[in-house]
Fold this sequence. Notes:
Distance between the termini: 46 Å
Structural class: alpha+beta
Helix content: 40-55%
Shape: globular
Number of helices: 15
Strand order of the largest sheet: 1-5-4-3-2
Number of strands: 7
Strand content: 5-15%
Oligomer: single chain
Amino acid sequence: MIMDKIIFDSKYFNVKDTLDCGQIFRYRPYKKGYLVFSSDKVCYAYNESEKAVIISDDKKYFYNFFDLSEDYGEIVNKALNCDCEAICQSSKLGKGIRILNQNRVETLFSFIVSQNNNIPRIKGIIEKMCFFLGEKKCAEIEGEKIEYFAFPKINELAKKDVGFFSSIGLGYRASYIERLAKDIDGGKNIEELDLLSTSDLKNRLLSIYGVGPKVADCVLLFGFHRTDSFPVDTWIEKVYHENMGGTLTDRNKIAKQLVCKYGELSGYFQQYLFYYKRSLEANE
DNA sequence: GACCAGGTGAATA
DNA sequence: TATTCACATGGT
């Protein structure tokens, strides 16, 4: 196994902030940074002296995963010059955040798990799914052996019933997961949805049992990289009312209003705001 | 013990 | 169409 290293300027790439802003649930602290798991792959990522470093055996995959071809300096600039003070402030704090390009099927399962749930618990549940149903893998990073579990293949998920999913803590979401695993036929039909426009794609996602507007928006943004999506959860609702002077109460309408205003920048601004509001609360 | 967490489906008016 | 409620679980 050949390990490759990506070295990237850290001005607009902070590994910790990118991982901690709630778009991904499979990562853990390791040495100078983090081990990050996606699909059946792993990388070791950290920041050190003005650089971000990513070590993996699939350079191409993680180059795309961390969205390294995108110019985040330009995006942050647009946030700094935007009419909304909260977006401006939050982009200063979160300028190192990047929107990941994650595996679509994994993102779909993960965000169904996420509904009405908190991040530590979401992480735990997904970890159990991988531990019980995922393939055991091994990698060697800087001479050290790393053992981990891949995200389960759909046919492995499809073998399990609602009782199993309940037993790993999914609660009432167990039946959503059971049905999705049995319905999507290996997951290929999910990948193919990328051909659709954002609005058609959203409607297809909404037709899945257990997927509502918020989960659909997260899958659009984190799985399909549709940055003209603005997921509105409890945190965004809070920041919208408390820091942006928003007056709407219906989450769907809030999302529509913000996408209408910020277009292709919506997803980035949403991540800055989510991270900002959560860190404000943590420091109070 | 109430309230909350990256909400959704179903019933009701 | 818009509101309201139940839903599992674990943390504060």
